[in-house]
What does this fold into?
Amino acid sequence: MARSTRLMAELKRQLKKQGITYRVLADELDLSESAIKQMFASDNMSLKRMDAICALLKLDISDLVIMSDTQDAQLEGLSIPQETELVNNRHLLLVAYCVVNHWTFDNIIARYNLTEPELILELAKLDKMKLIELLPGNRIKPLIASNFNWHPDGPIEHFFRTQVQSAFFDSNFDEDGCLRLVKNGDLSLVARKQLVDRLETVGQLFDDTNRQERKLNTNERQGTTMVLAIRNWQFEAFTSLERD
It folds into this structure.
């Protein structure tokens, strides 16, 4: 599918997601509704018009490009042996974390104590797993679907419970941008399900924010984990690999 067609398809998805109809869009752009429909039906739109619609959606065109690339991704999960390979190789797990968060080759080399041949080796493994596509010039294209997830009781989940979870919560969460919210009460199953739906919306907000933040330089971002709590934190096995 051509890049322009993918962008138009993503534009339609974002309009639907935000509840903006063609009629509303026509009013905002001072066009007829039929003109809007024709524009989308023909997949023919000027860059200036696309920029105006993105402004209405509170997005940049660069956001649209990232989201359309994400929609192309097909990988929804790894096999158990692949998850095992990740947790048994600290370098591979680190590089997987970086590329999932859209770090470039140079970003990874600058931050972590890996040589170029070592990094290429790990990227080649991730390419074989179909987590990424390693392109000429050591460019990295993530190939992860928006609904990508780990096996519920697989190696990654076990690794999180045994080596990551306790370290994450070993904090008083009193720094700026950190929160641990604990509430207690007697709730029905219906009420709990309603809260779960709202919390999943918060999870989607985290994903959307993470995607928007990719425009920043890596030195402006910190590893951030949210499990009904949020703080700047990164796995010690990763920080131990950082360059001095």
Remarks:
- Residues 54 and 60 are 6 Å apart (CA to CA).
- The chain has three domains: 3-72, 80-142, 155-239.
